[in-house]
């Protein structure tokens, strides 16, 4: 698979509800880093980030990711993504992301996720 196909597969699987299939595209040695100072921020290993994606799925009545752009070079791919959804608390959620991935053996071995962390924190708040 190409880098673009791997990343598209990840989001297609997640969007269809196949979280296990999506996270199966993570390399066992993945370093997944999320920007900000939220509880989800920082570096996560494969087990931690896989659990995080399961929890994310449960936190929303619906949540869909849309890929807008990809740029790939060698073993790296940069992806511009938007999400839209409804949180379990009824709040509408629409965030924008930049993901930077590194691919090894047809798996995502490194991920850097940049997003509006204030919005991510707000949707989880009781406000």
CATH topology: Nuclear Transport Factor 2, Chain: A
Q: What average pLDDT do the residues reach?
A: 96
CATH architectural category: Roll
CATH class: Alpha Beta
| Fraction of residues in β-strands | over 45%
Neighbour order of strands in the largest sheet: 2-1-6-5-4-3
What is the H/E string? Answer: HHEEHEEEEH
Roughly how many Å is the radius of gyration?
14 Å
Characterization of the model:
- The radius of gyration is 14 Å and the shape is globular.
- The protein has a 6-stranded mixed beta sheet.
- It has 4 helices and 6 strands; from the N terminus they run ααββαββββα.
- Helix content is 31%, strand content 47%.
- It has helices at residues 3-15, 19-23, 46-59, 117-124; strands at 26-34, 42-44, 60-73, 76-87, 92-104, 107-115.
- It has a single domain (3-124), classed as Roll (Nuclear Transport Factor 2, Chain: A), CATH 3.10.450.50.
- The termini are far apart.
- A hairpin with a 2-residue loop joins β5 and β6.
- The chain is α+β, with helices and mostly antiparallel strands and 127 residues long.
């Amino acid at each position: 698979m190409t880098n673009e196909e791997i990343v598209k597969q990840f989001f297609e699987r997640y969007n269809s509800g196949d979280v296990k299939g999506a996270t199966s595209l993570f390399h066992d040695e993945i370093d997944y880093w999320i920007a900000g100072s939220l509880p989800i921020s920082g570096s996560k290993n494969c087990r931690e980030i896989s659990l995080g994606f399961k929890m994310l799925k449960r936190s929303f009545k619906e949540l869909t990711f849309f890929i807008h752009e990809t740029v790939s070079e060698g073993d790296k791919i940069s992806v511009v993504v938007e999400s839209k959804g409804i949180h379990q608390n009824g709040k509408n959620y629409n965030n924008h992301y930049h993901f930077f991935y590194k691919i090894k053996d047809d798996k995502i071995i490194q991920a850097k996720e940049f997003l509006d962390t204030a919005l991510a924190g707000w949707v989880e708040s009781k406000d």
